[in-house]
Amino acid sequence: KIIEHAGDLNTQSFDFVVIGGGAAGNVIANRLTENADVSVLLLEAGGFDEDDLLVNVPGFFFNTMGSRLDWNYTAQIGQNNRTGPLTRGFVLGGSTAINGMVYTRGTSEDWDRYADLTGDSGWSWDSVQPYIRKNERFTPPADNHNTSGQFDPAVHGFNGINSVTLFGFLHHLDELIIETSQIPETEFPFNLDQNSGHQLGIGWSQSTIFNGTRSSSAASYLAPPFRQRPNLHILLHAYVTRILPATTNQSHSFSGVEFTQDAGETLQVVTATKEVILSAGTIASPQILLNSGIGDSESLSELGISPLLHLPSVGQNLTEQALLAYIWVVNSTDPRDFAGPNATALTAEYLEQWKETRTGPLVNGGLTTNCFLRLPDNASIFESFEDPSAGPNTARIEVVFSSSDIGMFTVPTPDNFIGASPNLLTPASRGFLTLNTSNLLDHPLINLNLLSSEFDMFAMREGVRSVRRLMEAPPFQGFILQSTINATTDEELDEYIRENVVAGLHPVGTASMSPKGADWGVVDPDLKLKGAEGIRVVDASVLPLVPAAHTQAPVYIVAERAADLIKAAWYL
Ligand SMILES: Cc1cc2nc3c(=O)[nH]c(=O)nc-3n(C[C@H](O)[C@H](O)[C@H](O)COP(=O)(O)OP(=O)(O)OC[C@H]3O[C@@H](n4cnc5c(N)ncnc54)[C@H](O)[C@@H]3O)c2cc1C
Which InterPro entries match (predicted)? Predict the structure, then answer.
């Protein structure tokens, strides 16, 4: 059950303590408590309100950024000395309760590369198929339209826990995008299902939405029948500060979890008799490890933290996608087609419709169509750079379309507009995260270091040019009135990009998997912390490279497999 005060727990000892109730943590909590003999305590720093409209109404997701549901981290962008927000969910459900709901698994090449890199064939595309099915339950869209020709049922699961669906409200912009994909010989061909392992081209987007309502990991994996299990305890407002060694002389065996419910005034400790599962996400998981003395010993000592385990890769290899908002002024007076100046007034009307029937413009998530692109494979940049994408069927750029995204953009003009923005999916640049102070409650220092590689700058420039070609396609004639980026030369584009690039909000890699015995990485392919007993990391931080995808589905897949690995290790 869900409780708010540690005093309401009737024991301080559990088989497993899971830190963080986000995408991964809630999968683990659910799967381990399938066995009634296993006790699990899930500690979540944020709160939970099942009826929160900000969470439940898919069309409100842009408003979650910077809200009470956001950790509100600030990160170094890595260009022109700029800083920017790095939104992460601060609520049960984690970032799945505030994200854009886009469901993309990455390509078969992405997963096969994970298998190669870690030396564990269990991470290959073929091997993770059962975990995709355990997670996914494909459901009809909110408007119950006929979906034939919009996805391939053969590559989907219909019996998993988390609902995935197609758009429930059709935008004119999407009609134009799909029309473009039907043009013979087009550079942007139609792809029936971008989650088949082959993602290139234009397709209908899939989203984690059920019956017009967001399906977060809390709504799905912690739905009432699961959260009512007597062996599952969920403690809210529990901010975990450190993981503690089992005894003072056995410093590489960990079992204690320290947390506070009163902003650090008092610290409490619970014990995991089997394992601590760290699922606090790409930012907080390495932060908790560092706070605990697990990281680069020298820099920990400099901060006054006693090093317990020397793992220099903790917080390194931070890999984040780079997004450049690209707004287009459009010739349309239909308020459903764009994020226009009347958005606020319309929102009230749309919300009434949503409340009454779970239909209307607010039932859609962040994307209703996707476009995944390669860049020219014969470009001279490849003479000096290895391709950072996973292979020839994996995109380098995604065009992020936005139509009725009320609240996302500060309206640049009084005109009506849409977004078609390049997102660099497979960056070569790497950032890092370190502690700022030894204060356990301070935010860490996050440097995303976006576009620091010359390859990434090249890819983003070409991404802008690809978007321009797309918007010049015949179906958009008469609809698109004006581009809001005037830069054309490489130099002009670079300057515009440096000034405007933002975080793609899919960071991974700060507690990376690597082969057993490797001299880099933080966890083994079974997600156990290297050189330690009693800790496993299960969340986006373990992905050694970012997939060419929005990251929630990959994290669900990792967590579903992790649950099986844990069960196998303990014969559960
Ligand atoms: C605004 C936004 C939009 C996004 N859009 C999409 C999208 O459309 N599609 C997609 O696939 N992905 C999207 N993502 C990314 C996706 O949501 C994440 O990759 C995924 O949720 C990561 O899962 P996780 O388990 O690693 O972390 P999270 O889901 O972030 O969960 C971490 C949990 O740990 C908790 N926690 C952190 N620190 C502590 C602590 N010290 N003590 C206790 N608890 C703690 C957090 O509160 C949170 O609940 C988006 C993310 C954001 C922020």
Answer: FAD/NAD-bd_sf (IPR036188), GMC_OxRdtase (IPR012132), GMC_OxRdtase_N (IPR000172), GMC_OxRtase_C (IPR007867)
- Ligand 1 pocket, 88 CB below 6 A? yes
- DSSP secondary-structure letter at 171? -
506 in active site: yes
CA atoms of 318 and 243, how far apart (whole Å): 22
pLDDT at 229: 98
Q: Which of 199, 552, 558 to mutate to test the pocket of ligand 1 (most atoms within 8 A of CB)?
A: 552
Question: Can you tell me whether residue 69 is helix, strand or coil?
Answer: coil
Residue 284 Cβ contacting ligand 1 at under 6 Å: yes
SS3 338: coil
Q: Is 408 in the pocket of ligand 1 (CB under 6 A)?
A: no
Q: Which pLDDT does position 407 carry in this prediction?
A: 46
What pLDDT was estimated at residue 334?
65
Q: What are phi and psi of 564, to 5 degrees?
A: -65, -40
Is the Cβ atom of 507 under 6 angstroms away from ligand 1? Answer: no
Residues belonging to the binding site for FAD are 91, 99-102, 240
Token readout for 565 is 């690995």
- Quick one: which atom of ligand 1 is closest to the CA of 22? 31
Q: Are 108 and 548 contacting, i.e. CB atoms less than 8 angstroms apart?
A: no
Domains and CATH numbers, the chain: 137-213+320-503 (3.30.560.10)
Closest CA to 448 of 312, 282, 335: 282
Ligand 1 centroid to Cα of residue 551, in Å, is 9
552 within 8 A of 96, measured Cβ to Cβ: yes
Distance (angstroms) between ligand 1 centre and the Cα of 93 equals 8
Alpha carbons 388 and 108: distance in angstroms, whole number: 15
pLDDT tens track for 199-241 = 999 999 999 999 999 999 999 999 999 999 999 999 999 999 9
**237 labelled catalytic:** no
Side-chain-side CA neighbours of 59 within 13 Å: the count stands at 31
Tokens of 132: 């995709």
d(CA 96, CA 217): 6
CA proximity to 557, closest of 19, 106, 34: 106
Rounded mean pLDDT, 404-424: 69
- Specify whether the backbone of 218 is left (phi greater than 0), alpha (psi in -120 to 50) or beta: alpha
- Residue written as token pair 């260009």: 79
Tokens (6 digits) for 343: 């958005």
Beta-bridge mates of residue 275: 16
For the residues of 172-238, what is the DSSP string, one character each?
A: HHHHHHHHHHTSTT-SS-B-S-TTSS---EEEE--BSEETTEE--HHHHHT-HHHHT-TTEEEESS-
